[in-house]
Amino acid sequence: MLVEMVSPISKLTVSPPTSGDIPSFKLFESDKVLAFLDIQPLSKGHTLVIPKHHGAKLTDIPDDQLLEVLSVTKKVAIASGAENWNLLQNNGRAAHQVVDHVHFHMIPKPNASEGLGVGWPAKETDMDALKQLHAELKAKM
């Protein structure tokens, strides 16, 4: 996974890199969004899409920037030709975020051994507790 490439954005360079720079194979850039190939990919076409607005967590990014991030991510997924892919975005250390700048991974999943491996330890649901949580969250929306 990418560790220092995203933060700060100014460390990114277009290929070929100069001494001390981190290489970046840019696929797309606008005033709000940057998309580039991951230099430690989980599969062919693994791409990072980032807002240029700095924020450590998704909730730190203005909505207009997020709209373009998703639009660009869709374009990258289509361009990659991947039939199956994961879109990954982590928030906080406990959620496996290593870089303190919001970034989305578009990770093609060509087969069972390549791409993102995901475990999903689902738990039994207490429907009364779920109903209460639903009411609490809905009231805050």
Description:
The chain is an alpha+beta fold and 141 residues long. It is 23% helix and 21% strand. It is built from 2 helices and 7 strands, in the order βββββαββα. The protein has helices at 63-80, 127-140, and strands spanning 12-14, 22-24, 26-29, 33-37, 47-51, 85-88, 104-108. The strands form 2 sheets. Strands 3-4-5-7-6 form a 5-stranded antiparallel beta sheet, with helices on one face. The chain has a two-stranded parallel sheet with strand order 1-2. A hairpin with a 3-residue loop joins β3 (26-29) and β4. The protein is globular. The two termini are 33 Å apart.
What descriptive keywords fit this protein?
5-stranded antiparallel β-sheet; two-stranded parallel ribbon; alpha+beta; 23% helix; 21% strand; single chain; disordered N terminus; globular; 7 strands; 141 residues
